[in-house]
Amino acid sequence: SVLLPAMGNHFSHVGGSQDLEKTPRGRGSPPPPPREASLAVRGLLQEL
Question: Positions of the region Disordered (predicted)?
């Protein structure tokens, strides 16, 4: 159960889709490419 909030905090810190939805200014900037998201997930898994 610790993995889910950890991933949420990681994505929100990097600027994930969830963070963009909460912040109105995020709409102006284009969403990060899927490649970047996958790399972030891999890095998080490696840290664990």
Answer: 1-48
